[in-house]
Every structure is written in C-alpha cells, then in structure tokens.
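anyone else get weird line breaks when pasting these?? whatever heres mine. first is seq + tokens for prot A
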Amino acid sequence: MTREIFLAIVEWASVFVYALSGIVEARKRNLDLFGALVIGFVTAFGGGTLRDVLLGRHPLYWTQHPIYIATVVITAILALFFPFQADKRTRRLIIVLDALGLGLFSYLGTYHAITYSTHMLVAPIMGMITATFGGVIRDVFFSEIPQIFLLRTQLYAVCALLGAFVYVLLRMLETDNSIAMLMCVTSTFLMRMLAIKHNLRLPL
C-alpha cells in the first residue's frame, strides 16, 4: 500500500467519524436533512479547512475527494432511517468514535503541517486545530459556547495537542511514519478516554 492510499484511508475514516458525530448531534436537536448535512459538513471539514487556509494549502483537501462529500451525504440520509436513540450504549459508541476521530485528525493535521515544512513546534498546533475546530464551528452553529472552552469539559484539545507532540517527537527520532501515526492516534485516544473516565480537566 502506497503512502497516498494509506493517508486517503485514514482521512476518509476521520471524515466519517466526525461527520457521524455531528449528524448525531443534529438529529438530537431534531434538525432536518439539510440541517444534518450542514452540521455534518462543518464538523467533518471545519478543522481541516482552517488548517489548509493557515498553511496556504490549496485546493482545500476535501474539494479533491468527492468520496468525502458522498460519505457525509450518505451518513446524513441513513440517519433519517435509523433514528437516534439516546441510550447508554449509543452514547458510549459516540464517545469512542469521537475519541478515535480526535486521534486520527490530530495525526493528519500534524503530518500535513510537517510536509509543508512547518516548524516542529507549530505542527502540533495544526494537528490540534484540525482535530478540534470542526466541533468548535458546530457548536457556534448551535449558538452555544464551544464545548472545548468550558470548564466542565474533560480534556479534549489538550489530548489532541499531546498526541500531536508524540508524533512530532517520534518523527524527529526518525521513527517509521506508520508507527508514529499509530502512537499518535493511540495516545490521543487513550488520553481522551482517561479524561472522560476520571473527569480530568484543566485547572482554573
């Protein structure tokens, strides 16, 4: 498998996970299909779009991959036929998928920043932006203060940032990219799940 195919698969998985989380939030608020599509798009593409703009990376990544757009559309349509049930199992699944997406997008944002010769201290910030700002834009659409900015929210952006630093450190040590990616995603995922389990927050 070539690196381009590998990155495309990881990026598609990230888009799907974040689109699903956004669409579920839209359905919880009884938005129609168009509303679910808008929320799915901004959640899945918002962070990566902001990253590309900051890096001067054109054309924007999602405009070159129609399958990403189709994924959001199909996910939103399927959500109409499988109504959201706010039970414990579903909430747990969404939490796990969101934590996985956080790790995947953290890796992707950091990787693309490095390929654009961004400084090693700046690259993790790009990873964090990629992983979190789709959710920020989603919350703004809901006329809410973004969840990651609230005191009651367990560590979220910090997990993405630390996972991105893990990736950068391993790349500096000339670790194979696939191993560095795995460590980035795994560390981000585990930190997020621990933050939820133990209710970890930043100090005041």
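and prot B, same format (seq, then tokens)
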Amino acid sequence: MQATGILNTLKKVDQSKTFQGFVIFVIIVSALSIGAHTYHLPPWLEQSLWVLDIAITGFFLFELIIRFMASDGIKSFFSKGWNIFDTIIVIGSLVPLGGSTILLARLLRIFRVLRLVSMVPELRMLINALLKAIPRMGYIALLMFVIFYIYGAIGSMFFANVNDFLWGDVSIAMLTLFRISTFESWTSIMYETMEVYPLSWLYYLSFIFLTTFVFLNMMVGAVLDVMGEETKIMRDEQGDNCDTEKLEKFGGIEINSNVKDEQIRQLHEKIDKLTELILEKK
C-alpha cells in the first residue's frame, strides 16, 4: 500500500506542470552554459560553469529516475521513443569534462538542448509529423532528382561550350541547377547563356517553375497534411486524459490513460448498487 502511495506521488510529480516547467528552465540554463564555454572566460567563471554542469547533469539523472519509477515498469518506460532518447542524452552527459574526453563531453552536452523537444508536447508533435512525412517527402525528392537530372543533362549538352565551369558535365550542371533553384545569382547565369542561345530563358523559367513553385509546395503540403493528422491525434489524447481524470474523481477507480473495460464495468456496478440503495430507502 505504501509503495502504491509513493508511485502515485512520483506520477503526480512527473506530470506536474511546475516540475516540467522547472525541467525546461534547467535545459535552457544548460544550453546557455554550453554556449558560455565557447568564450574566453576567467578561471573562476570556468570553475563555476564546471560546478553548474555537474549540478545540471545530476538533476537530469534525478528527473529521469523519477520518470522511470513513475512508469509501469521497464517495458512501459522504454516503449516510448522519447524516453529512450532522453536516456541516451543523459547517459552521454555522464562523460566527465576533463582530460582527453573534454571535446567529446562538450559535444555530447550540446545535444541536451534537444531535450527541450521531448518536454514540450507541441515540439514533439512537430518532430513526429516531420518523421512521418519523410516517406512522402522521399518520393517527392526522387521526382525532383529526376527533373534535376534531365535538366542537368540538357544544360550540359547545350551550355558546356558557354561556361565549362558551370555546365561541364551532368553532375556539375545539377549543382548549378541547385544554385539556380535557391535564386543565388541565377539571372547572371541565364544572361550568360542567352548571349549564345537567346531562347534559353525558357529553360530557366520552366525549371524554376517546376522545382521552386511546384515541388517545394508539394513538400510543404506533405508536411502540413501529416501535421494535421498529428494535431488531431494529440487533441484526442488530451480529450481522453480529461475524460479519465473525470472518471477517477467520480468513481474512485484507478484508471490509466487507456480505460479498461473491466474498470468501466466496476463503475457501472457501483452506480447500480447506489441506485438500489436509493430505491430501498424510498
């Protein structure tokens, strides 16, 4: 019974907005301390930052232990990808700052800033949407590569005699086309070829239309589509959590995020018994 009480306390602490806000504050302080190491600082300040780093690492380890103990076992804890991510980041932070490993330790500590993503639900939603959109974006990127290759081959065949440095072969031509797609001095490249081929502007405008306007918007559309799905999932989860909290207050039954049929049945039994008592009194 005492263990259950401790577990409930740890869950409340882990889910507390105040505690989560303090964790985010420590992550920001950690990021600032990492940036401070890139400056030439007096020895006393370097020593202070070293002590601060030890305190931050200890706090992150403490916070991870609380989250682990508040979960329903090892399997439940590591079933969430963000918990695995945070565990790797915290373990990497345990590399000591000193000796031959100082560069590696500082490099690993830089990634502690990414913990901000795992702490803020909206940022997690954005990352999840981006990861889920990668397959769709991959097909769009493949189609873009085909267009780049076709235009690169055409450009190399026609414009190599104009500027061999920019159009010497298909790979260099594709690199030039990438520069054109970013609008980096593309007009100077176009005017150079127009001196020999006056209608070459059609080549550039059609390429820019396909890559910059069509494919770029397709990429944005793929990400927005997945973001809409992730936003709906996040709202549904928040709605389920609100319903669960109401059921817990009303029925006095311990309910996890996924309400089980057995627990709902118990709640109905309690309501039936309460109804029978009221009818007997009447």
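btw re prot B: Residues 38 and 106 are 10 Å apart (CA to CA). Confidence is low (pLDDT under 50) at residues 246-259.
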